[in-house]
Amino acid sequence: MYVLKNSHGDCGEFSLLFITMARYAGVPAKWQSGWMLHPGNVNLHDWAEVYYEGVGWVPVDQSFGYSGGDRDSSDGIEETPLKYFFSRGLDAFRYIVNDDYGDFAPLYPAKIYPHNDEVDFQMGEVEWRCGNVLNGDWRCWMTVDYN
């Protein structure tokens, strides 16, 4: 409702709206999240996946896509490599970290305390004998070498 009411939202909010609408229309859809590693950017990211019979789960990302620009005379949309990258070339740049964890698959070693976030698992979980260490209380770094 937030996205519909305010006409904006983050990647997770857009994905949840898409999943809700797809399921309402009878299309199997699920949440997916992890890291977005497209050139020049490393970021946490959420997207949706839809199920196509005979194909399997396919990413659909409402955060990316061609949104306009210069026009040519053939189809009204300028043909550029950047257009195709952001409309259908991102799949290889997603690194899934949540597959199965949304269903609370067991962790090893097993968690003692409840998950920090019952929907997302992008940052992982850290705990010690006295409880969870919340994401803001610990640091992690990730570097990506594109060579």
What does this structure look like?
The chain has 147 residues and is of the alpha+beta class. It has a domain at 2-96. It has helices at 2-6, 11-24, 81-88, and strands at 29-36, 43-52, 56-60, 94-96, 126-128, 131-133. The strands form 2 sheets. The protein has a 4-stranded antiparallel sheet with strand order 3-2-1-4, covered by helices on one side. A two-stranded antiparallel ribbon has the order 5-6. The longest helix is centred in the N-terminal third of the chain and has 14 residues, at 11-24. The termini are far apart. The model has no long low-confidence stretch (mean pLDDT 75).
Elements, N to C (H/E): HHEEEHEEE
Helix proportion: 10-25%
Mean pLDDT: 75
Global outline: globular
Distance between termini? 42 Å
Q: How much strand content do the residues show?
A: 15-25%
Strand arrangement in the largest pleated sheet: 3-2-1-4
Cα radius of gyration in angstroms: 18 Å
The biggest beta sheet reads: 4 strands, antiparallel
Low-confidence runs of at least 5 consecutive residues: none
Secondary structure class reads alpha+beta
- Count the helices. How many? 3
Task: Tell me how many strands there are.
Answer: 6
